[in-house]
Amino acid sequence: MEFVSYENHELSASVDSANGYGVRDLGCVYCYDTSLNPNGIYTSLKSWKSFSLNCLQFDVKSNRFYLHTKTTRKLRPLDSSINANSADLQNGNTSDPKSMKDFILNEPAFDSFHTYSVVVFDPNNSNKGSADSIVISVPYPTGDSLVDDSVSALLLHLESASSKPENDTSGILPDESLFVSRYADSLPQLPCVHPIPSDKSQWFCSACGKQENLWMNLSSGYIGCGRRNWDGSGGCGASLAHFKDTGEHFPLVVKLGSITATDADVHSYAKDEDDAVVDPKLAEHLSHWGIARQLMEKTEKSVAEMQVDLNKNYEFSRMTEAGKNLQRVS
Fold first, then answer.
1. Which residues does residue 216 pair with via DSSP β-bridges, in sequence order?
2. What is the pLDDT of residues 207-233, one digit of tens each?
3. Dist. CA 245–CA 251, nearest whole Å
């Protein structure tokens, strides 16, 4: 069939080529929506990250190709013994503890039915996810070999990941195999007029004065807060604002509190990356600003650690309905 034109780098056919990002299920990276949502879920065929319809706007603008998945469930019929136990319980007969146990432990089972389609969005449309931003939507398989290979690789990975125990995170955490930034090798660096002090108490956000979640631009030496999180924590976003204010020419930043002799959180704001990355020349880039990497010690949680904490807090808040005014039921 006739498909839209594309470049090979717009698709991924393995975990490695998908920026090392593994997935266990089709769930939005920003909220708890899954493919069971009436609007389905959209999974980038470049990064393999999934987004609900409302969160598509937060994905990288240049990502065009997505697998749209919608899932429906059909309840399987219970076997006769469980049906009998169910009838006993509904009639108030709870004298048989075995009946009660069997009924409780035999949770309803479902058959899941998935429908897949490949959706291509217009990268120049700022409202990604709207009807007028869709260039084409084709049921999978599309007939285009490269596109179908990318979808097939994603689905095979999902099948493999779903068979692992819940506490097995191998191949799932995005920081296990970060990709090298294309900008690291020839990163421009302005002359160092004022070296960054080694005393961490002298590090401040240039915009708001905060001393936490500070990111230094490796090209300009500018220190600013990271982005604000969904729960209000984080920073004022000065680091990203500086990248935009300087013509988007200085994409790489490092989290100052994460730097050690062997590790550090480096992020690329470049539109074609916009992700955690590896800077093979980080020690050299830090040295330019007077920072000796081999002497640095970690003083803050990494981005991955913070994300785990945020997710735990969000899930607990949802379960306890924290912050909500509840009405009495009696």
1. 223, 254
2. 999 999 999 999 999 999 998 766 566
3. 12
Q: Render pLDDT for 190-205 as a digit per residue (tens, 0 to 9).
A: 999 989 987 888 999 9
80, two tokens: 């006769």
- Judged on CB neighbours under 10 Å (0-12, 13-18, 19+), 66 is buried
Angle, to 10 degrees, between the axis of helix 80-90 and the axis of helix 97-105? Answer: 120
Instruction: Kindly state whether residues 213 and 172 are assigned to the same domain.
Output: no
* Global model pTM greater than 0.70: no
Question: pLDDT category, 236, cuts 50, 70, 90?
Answer: very high
DSSP assigned state of 15: T
Task: Please tell me whether residues 246 and 303 are part of one structural domain.
Answer: yes
List phi, psi (to 5°) of 286.
Answer: -70, -40
d(Cα 165, Cα 174) in Å, to the nearest integer?
18
Provide DSSP, 230-255: TTS-B---HHHHHHHHTTT---EEEE
Return the CATH number at 299: 3.30.40.10
What span, in angstroms and rounded, lies between the C-alpha atoms of 269 and 267? 6
Supply the range of the domain harboring residue 229.
200-313
Instruction: Report yes or no: 35 and 71 within 8 Å, Cβ to Cβ.
Output: yes
